[in-house]
Write a structure and sequence with these properties.
single chain, alpha/beta, five-stranded parallel β-sheet, 8 helices, 5 strands, binds 3'-deoxy-3'-aminothymidine monophosphate, kinase
């Protein structure tokens, strides 16, 4: 029941191409859950605040070069260094809205040509999300949204490959949301799905690990 100290929080992940609206929708979801009185936090990966995160950040802004395998493993390490805190938060009843997770790791690296199984391997044992929300947008439309910044990967040709890799990762449990609808419509759809998930987790759905 709501308010029970034993009920756990939900692990909710937003995925999508660059400029698909994940970041705005994540903050909007956080406010929504807080308005309803839920304990919730907004997380994002890469988490640029750690030492590993700073290496990633410097790579993304083209201030450093790294071997493609190395950066893949750093993204994964950046999730591993938050795993235990993530579990504690969830078990103590805080819902986490997470802007990008292992699926970004796999989609962006397999878009470089790595095998999906190789990409997934370092993610095995991280917490499995209770819900994956995919903000679906055509790469061309995303590119037209105020343009990409100067970060690595923010190029149409590459985003097309990433879109294909995301498609290869989809399973029936993902909620695919058309990211080209008016923002308020997207918000409403996400709110309904998320509330449902939060309730299911409160009722005792067990936590599990990737990659199943
Ligand atoms: N990215 C993100 C990866 O390549 N692998 C990962 O594991 C994660 C979490 O980093 N273009 C890429 C996707 C983005 C970039 O993300 C930075 P953001 O959401 O722009 O900070």
């Amino acid at each position: 029941t709501s308010g029970s100290s034993k009920s756990r929080g939900a692990l909710i992940v937003l995925e999508g191409l660059d400029r698909s609206g994940k970041t705005s929708q994540s903050s909007s979801l956080l406010k929504y859950l807080e308005r309803l009185g839920h304990s919730a936090e907004l997380w994002r990966f890469p988490d640029r605040s750690s030492n590993v995160g700073q290496m990633i950040s410097s790579y993304l802004s083209n201030k450093s070069q790294l071997d493609d395998h190395t950066i893949h493993l750093l993204f994964s390490a950046n999730r591993w260094e938050r795993r235990s805190l993530m579990e504690t938060k969830l078990k103590t009843g805080t819902t986490l809205i997470v802007d990008r997770y292992s699926y970004s790791g796999v989609a962006f690296s397999s878009a470089k040509g790595f095998g999906v199984e190789w990409c997934k391997a370092p993610e095995i044992g991280l917490l499995a999300p209770d819900l994956v929300l995919y903000l679906d947008i055509q790469p061309e439309q995303a590119a037209g949204r105020g343009g990409y910044g100067s970060e690595r990967y923010e190029q149409l040709e590459f985003q097309r490959k990433v879109a294909q890799c995301y498609q290869d990762l989809y399973d029936a449990s993902w909620k695919i949301i058309d990211a080209c609808q008016p923002m308020e419509d997207i918000e409403k759809q996400l709110q309904n799905i998320v509330l449902d998930c939060v309730t299911t987790c409160q009722k005792g759905k067990p936590l599990s690990n990737l990659w199943s």
